[in-house]
Amino acid sequence: MAEIKYDKDVDPKALAGATIAVIGYGSQGHAHALNLRDSGYDVVVGLAAGSKSWARAEADGLQVREAKDAARHADLVSILVPDQHHRSVYETSIKPFMGKGRTLVVAHAFSVHFKQVVPVPGADVVLVAPKAPGHRMREVFVEGRGVPSLFAVAQDASGHAEATALAYGKGIGSGRAGLIKTTFPEEVETDLFGEQTVLCGGISELIKAGFQTLVDAGYQPEVAYFECLNEMKLIVDLIYEGGLSYMRYSVSDTAEFGDYTSGPRIIDDHVKDTMRKVLAEIRDGTFAKKWIAEYEKGAPTLLATRAREQSSQIEQVGRKLRAMMPWLPKKGIAVELGRSADGKAKEEVHA
Questions:
Q1: pLDDT for the residue numbered 345
Q2: Lowest CB count within 10 Å: 17, 28, 160, 211, which one?
Q3: Annotation says 270 is catalytic
């Protein structure tokens, strides 16, 4: 069983008097910085000169400095820029100031586990990974609650790295919900696997395959969209609230029977074999090398695929139908209209 820690298990002295530099002010960065600040810690945000997030962080009442200056004077440095930027940010703005008595925090183990970031020997290196998007993490904290986080230690030079990780987790609010002990390999390998085979890659391809099967069979694209994409939220919400059993309780007996009889025919042994291959490529570093090489070339495959997917039939039909749904949040519309295929707008979300 997993080892889970709560606020009561945290040493209140572990980060007493510490200055925490949060490098990045995007989805995760803003939530970490604000939650830590509101928990009573001395927080400084580190950004690149000219960052569009600079004014927003200052408007939120935070100290802001260039990343190198923020890291120079911090006891603990939390690097919360996108994975592909960890290496350059670490080498230029963090590494020169890491050493005995300093702690490096990451919210995803990718860069450390796959050696994009190679920590100096004298520093502690810990993981605190909230299991929610940054905006939700902040909302829940303000409500007086917290989201669960995973925590782990990769390097314990001081002998009390775990206590530091737990105190940081408490500071962002996760001690209220639960801090689950893991390892750097387990966190990154399961995270990448879940994204690729189920949460992003798997579900996207399943939706597209279902949609195309109905359209090819002569059904209206609009009807296919509702059946294979739009209603996905209804089912996922039920699963999120009470697991698979609650979803099956909530749907019709007809739907439940079809779940049991047809589901295993779609997700069959061939799919499971492919999942095992994907997991093996994650564990041996094949995927990490592929993504790093892709990014270093300017991400041509990513950008071309993004542009092609945005212009696909299912996306075109979806834009038309969502315009008929005034109750939907406007965030999706903003992304559709504002994010071009070059990825710049997406970058700003995470910077």
A1: 41
A2: 17
A3: no
